[in-house]
Specification:
The complex is a heterotrimer of chains A (420), B (481) and C (118).
Chain A (H helix, E strand, L loop, with lengths): L1 E8 L3 H12 L5 E4 L15 E3 L8 E2 H13 L4 E4 L3 E5 L4 E6 L3 E12 L3 E3 L2 H4 L2 E2 L5 E3 H11 L1 E2 L3 E5 L3 H12 L3 E7 L8 H8 L6 E3 L1 E7 L6 E6 L12 E4 L2 E4 L3 E3 L2 H6 L23 E3 L10 H20 L7 E7 L3 E5 L2 E4 L6 E7 L3 E10 L2 E11 L5 E5 L1 H4 L5 E6 L4
Parallel strand pairs in A: 1-2, 1-8, 2-5, 8-21, 10-16, 11-19, 13-14, 13-19, 14-15, 22-29
Antiparallel strand pairs in A: 3-4, 6-7, 7-8, 9-20, 16-17, 17-18, 22-24, 23-25, 25-28, 26-27, 26-29
Chain B lengths: L4 E2 L2 E4 L3 H10 L6 E4 L16 E2 L10 H19 L4 E2 L3 E5 L2 H16 L6 E4 H7 L8 E5 L3 E3 L1 H14 L3 E3 L4 E7 L2 E7 L2 E4 L2 E4 L5 H8 L6 E11 L11 E4 L9 E4 L5 E4 L3 E3 L9 H12 L10 E12 L5 E4 L5 E5 L5 H17 L25 H10 L6 E3 L4 E2 H9 L7 H8 L11 H13 L17 E2 L4
Parallel strand pairs in B: 1-13, 2-3, 2-14, 3-10, 6-16, 14-22
Antiparallel strand pairs in B: 4-9, 5-9, 6-8, 7-8, 11-12, 12-13, 15-18, 15-19, 15-20, 16-17, 17-18, 21-22, 23-24
Chain C lengths: L1 E6 L8 E7 L2 E6 L4 H12 L2 E2 L2 E7 L5 E6 L3 E2 L3 H9 L2 E3 L7 E3 L9 E3 L4
Parallel strand pairs in C: 5-8
Antiparallel strand pairs in C: 1-2, 2-3, 4-7, 5-6, 6-10, 9-10
The chains are: A alpha/beta (420), B alpha+beta (481), C alpha+beta (118).
């Protein structure tokens, strides 16, 4: 059985960034396994631009960003890549079993493992929409792959449920492909996408956005023929009498992403509430020693740039662990999200004697303006950051320097300062 | 007259009943074929039901339902091995949650004994919790050890394949439009593919059995569509639900809203029971979903609703006689296997025996010497041992490419499902045979790839590939050539 | 004098900006966090422009489609024309990332380049 310093499960931006970072930090035998026919993950189908401004300081398309990540590792003999390879299991002892048409079934041993499987889309079944089960209902991402990579359209007359970025991007894509996008319906009273996508994907094409609206029923037996839409109240319950029909042959769903953690859970990785991903420390190590996780498998990110940043953290510490240079942690600090902060990653800190820089990724529960983010340990405020605008769809990041982490004990709270 | 086909027996309808009958017929020295109006078998009631192989204590003693259920249940124990059927012999519980219902269990027990159901016993609350720890509301239950859960589509396809292997024919996309009679006896079945000359016709048309019978001149019964809605959960939720088959105490109309874990580990709740005029409407409704959630909560108070992955509805073919309608009709040469609702799956192999026996009274039937009741052994990739997986990939490298991530279904299995007898022609057909698309992402990842594999294997363009029925094309071409 | 509010689309921050106009001409902008925002605001009220990403057909590649991107922003009103033009473009693999696929599309002074190698 072949032994690697690091085995990385998933060759999307997280896996690729983790691999390069691990290499930069001294790992010399790195394996990246990808289930698709090529590296790059979902970025390869995201042909729009807007990626990379933070990470590469340049605006790139999805394939462009993927290409950059691939180029960094392509010629390094220390990093082995396998495509068309499905990982079937990961054990707590870091045995990774996978299958591909060429090698058949095989198992490799990692000194460390980094989980970078990404996420999948929520389906119609998860939101329990009434109606028949006709052709013409697709998750936005599945449709995106067909349109951008395979050369097929999911339909001609489209309704999109959910105003997350994928939904908005697909509204523009379908419009550019000559399809009629009839409407975008969003159950929340606000859009869940980036503002720039509202402007250039909806307003530019005069596509109506129905906020506080949901789809009650899908019409059509064999192929979608339309949807019944209704307004919802503050509790997101449909308001009787507000129903109306929109004709369409296709319904695209952009109703949320779910971290893909079946492998992690089977391995015994502990999951965190709200994020649906592994509970990780600041090094992105899970509860299982030597098993790290990064990117959308930990929590759904808004920008791929942050996925890369997080994966670099995991790659660095996994490399150090493989080399035996990881500083022992002596101080365990629980991280709680409070007061308007819905999720915070990492959920726990395992700090060495001299402290360690910590990057927090957070999301709020509801949109707000002019708020102050606070990190508190007991009554002591360790850090503050003013935020002009916060939205559930956009991640907040905060870097805590090593010096500050030395002041932490037991538990820190991350929250918004109460107003007034 | 030019006939599309000339045969001895025509079976109308490719559900579990029609295919079981075709298999039974294939044991005899006669020509037989099955016509199915949809592009695939198993697309009607057989594709959306509770998948339970009932023990047989529900139906009135002496009824067809009772006789064929108890006999069918017994037959499945043998068929399972011969046809590689997916069946989990979990046993079933009827749970009483009130004193009144505890009394009702006694009635069921007595009836079950009279029906010849082996091993029935009433068990205590503690014994219930030992079997099913999440049934916290149970006071007592009727335990039926012979009940099980089957993989209904797999059964129908296996029955059809076994029949085809023994010389029978399955013709899909072939709807019956009428009959020609001579001296009042049916002699020709008119179909959308042309007239079929036949000596006998068996009506196993499910929800449309009434219409088919009337076309033949038999107006002795009616069939009403009774819709049942279901919600299916992800496998990861099974531990907070149930391991086997759990019923509430039955009502007059139905066996109630049950909680049941399928042969592949997904738990479902349902069905409700609503009679409707339409025989096409299989939509799920908000009210229906609320009804089954409320019903299932009586058995399992903490339902993991966040883990549901799909909802669907099926139509039961409820006859006005209240029982199955089996055997000869007043029209010579026209036989019925109609009104098959619950316990139809359990009963199907026994129904086949009853109907073929009835035919034997009008036609001389001789058994084949070389009938082969065994299908080649086949194990799903995700159930293979490591060594079996390795071997499968060595023999065919497509077994090394996982197409459906959620259920770990390989390209090799999908290609086999298309190429084998009674092969898949549609995306849903591939799903029923391989489970590709049945998992938590519901075909989000694999749907497009399955579509492309179907197009390649069938030699048709991607935009012509159907989800299920004609008119259910999935994609359009992006560029005109 | 009139004012217009708009969201910047130059980066994911989406700053809310207020543009002051006089006789349809740009005067000033507030609310932007960077110079790119100011530039966007000015062109948005006078000559709105957008990046274009789409696909062209490719022969002999891993995929049947090659993603392409405009090297710079294009007049918003001409985007549809550019897409229509690109629908009829077919290239042959191999193609390098950044390779020019269409030079000076429709005479608008902007090249269309490959987003990836194939």
């Amino acid at each position: 059985m072949k032994l690697y310093d690091i085995v990385i499960v998933g060759g999307g931006p997280a896996g690729l960034s983790a691999a390069y970072s691990a290499y930069q930090n001294g790992a010399r035998q790195i394996l990246v396994m990808e289930r698709d026919r090529e590296m790059g993950g979902i970025l390869q189908q995201c042909i729009h631009n807007g990626f990379g401004l933070h990470h590469f300081k340049e605006e790139l398309t999805g394939p462009g960003y993927a290409g950059r990540c691939i180029a960094l590792i392509k010629d390094l003999p220390e990093i082995e890549t396998m495509t068309d390879t499905m990982v079937l299991s990961v054990t707590k002892d870091k045995l990774v079993t996978a299958v591909n048409p060429e090698k058949g079934l095989f198992t490799v041993q990692g000194k460390t493992v980094i989980l970078t499987m990404g996420c999948r889309e929520r389906t119609r079944g998860a939101i329990r929409t009434a109606g028949e089960r006709p052709a013409g209902i697709f998750t936005a991402g599945a449709a995106q792959r067909m349109v951008n990579m395979e050369g097929y359209l999911p339909g001609k007359k489209i309704v999109i449920l959910g105003s997350g970025d994928i939904g908005l991007i697909m509204a523009r894509r379908m419009s550019l492909e000559g399809c009629k996008v009839q409407a975008v319906c969003e159950i929340c009273p606000y859009s869940n996408g980036l503002t720039r996508n509202m402007v250039q994907c909806l307003y530019d094409f005069d596509i109506p956005l129905y906020l506080s609206h949901t789809i009650l029923k899908i019409k059509g037996k064999d192929r979608v023929e339309g949807v019944t839409v209704a307004k919802v109240d503050e509790k997101m319950c449909p308001i009787p009498g507000t129903e109306f029909d929109i004709a369409c042959d296709t319904l695209l769903l952009s109703v949320g992403l779910i971290p893909e953690n079946e492998l992690s859970m089977a391995a015994g990785v502990e999951m965190a509430p709200f994020t649906n991903g592994p509970r990780v420390d600041q090094r992105r190590q899970t509860n299982l020693p030597g098993i790290y996780a990064a990117g959308n498998v930990v929590h759904v990110h808004d920008l791929v740039d942050f996925v890369s940043d997080e994966a670099e953290i995991a790659g660095k510490f996994a490399a150090m662990e493989a080399a035996g240079t990881l500083l022992p942690a002596v101080n365990t600090v629980e991280v709680s999200a409070v007061n308007g902060i819905r999720t915070c990653v990492p959920q726990v800190l395992h700090l060495p004697e001299e402290g360690e820089p910590v990057r927090l990724f957070m999301r709020v529960g509801a949109p707000d303006r002019k708020v102050t983010l606070e990190v508190k340990c007991g009554d002591e405020v360790l850090m503050k950051k003013m935020l002009p605008v916060v939205k559930p769809s956009e991640m907040i990041t905060l870097d805590i320097p090593a010096g500050k982490t030395k002041l932490m004990h037991d538990k820190i709270e991350v929250g918004l300062q109460l107003k007034g | 007259m030019n006939f599309f086909k000339e045969t001895d027996v025509v079976v109308i309808g490719g559900g579990i009943v029609g295919t079981a009958i075709l298999r039974e017929l294939s044991k005899y020295k006669l020509r037989c074929l099955l016509v199915e109006k949809e592009p695939d078998v198993s697309t009607g009631t057989t594709k959306a039901n509770s998948a339970v192989c009932h023990a047989g204590f529900d139906a009135p003693t002496g009824s067809w339902k009772q006789k064929t259920n108890v006999r069918g249940n017994e037959l499945y124990h043998r068929l399972q091995e011969e046809l590689n059927l997916d069946i989990k012999w979990t046993g079933s519980l009827v749970v009483a949650t009130s004193e009144e219902e505890v009394q009702q269990l006694q009635v069921l027990l007595e009836r079950g004994k009279a029906n010849g159901v082996p091993g029935l016993q009433i068990i205590t609350k503690e014994e219930v919790l030992e079997k099913e720890p999440n049934l916290t509301t149970a006071l007592a239950a009727l335990w039926a050890p012979t009940a099980g859960v089957v993989w209904p589509f797999g059964c129908a396809v296996a029955f059809a394949q076994c029949a085809v292997q023994n010389g029978a024919e399955v013709i899909c996309d072939c709807a019956v439009t009428g009959f020609v009679k001579e001296n009042n006896a049916v002699t020709v079945v008119n179909t959308t593919k042309g007239p079929i000359r036949a000596k006998c016709v068996i009506n196993a048309a499910g929800i449309y059995a009434e219409e088919i019978a009337k076309l033949a001149g038999d107006d002795s019964f009616t069939i009403t569509a009774r819709k049942g809605e279901y919600i299916l959960f992800d496998k990861t939720a099974a531990s907070s639900l149930v391991y086997g088959v759990v019923f509430p105490c039955p009502t007059e109309k139905s066996k109630g809203i049950l909680v049941c874990t399928t042969t592949h580990g997904n738990t479902f709740i349902g069905p409700n029971a609503n009679e409707q005029f339409s025989k096409e409407d299989t939509s799920v409704t908000s009210a229906g979903m609320d009804e089954i959630i409320a019903g299932a909560r009586k058995l399992v108070p903490n339902l993991p609703m966040g883990a549901c992955i799909t909802e669907f509805a099926g139509l039961r073919a409820a006859s006005d006689t209240g029982d199955f309608i089996l055997g000869a009709s007043k029209v010579p040469g026209f036989f019925n296997a109609a009104g098959i609702q619950s316990p139809g799956i359990a009963a199907a192999p026994a129904i086949a025996e009853v109907v073929v026996e009835a035919i034997g009274k009008e036609m001389y039937l001789r058994k084949k010497d070389n009938w082969n009741g065994r299908l080649p052994k086949k194990t799903a990739f995700n159930r293979m041992t490591g060594a079996e997986k390795q071997k499968a990939i060595q023999d065919n490298s497509l077994y090394g490419r996982v197409i459906c991530r959620c259920e770990t279904v390989t390209e090799g299995e999908i290609v086999d499902a298309i190429r084998q007898p009674v092969g898949a022609r549609t995306v849903d057909g591939v799903k029923r045979r391989t489970r590709a698309g049945m998992g938590r992402c519901q075909g989000g990842f694999c749907g497009p790839r399955v579509t492309q594999i179907l197009a390649r294997e069938l030699g048709i363009p991607v935009e012509k590939v159907l989800k299920e029925r004609p008119g259910s094309e999935l994609y359009f071409k992006k560029f005109e050539e | 004098m009139e004012t217009k509010t708009m969201n910047c689309i130059m980066c994911p921050m989406g700053c809310e900006m207020t543009v002051t106009l006089e006789n349809g001409k740009f005067v000033s902008v507030t609310g932007n966090s960077c110079p790119r925002g100011a530039k966007y605001a000015e062109t948005e009220v006078t000559d709105p422009r957008r990046m274009l990403t789409t696909t062209v057909r490719i022969k002999g590649g891993l995929l049947p489609l090659l993603p392409v991107v405009s090297a710079d922003v294009l007049p918003k009103g001409r985007i549809a024309d550019c897409v229509a033009y690109l629908r009829n473009v077919t290239v042959e693999a191999p193609v390098k990332a950044g390779e020019i696929i269409v030079h000076d599309i429709l005479g608008l002074g902007v090249d269309i380049v490959a987003s990836r190698e194939m």
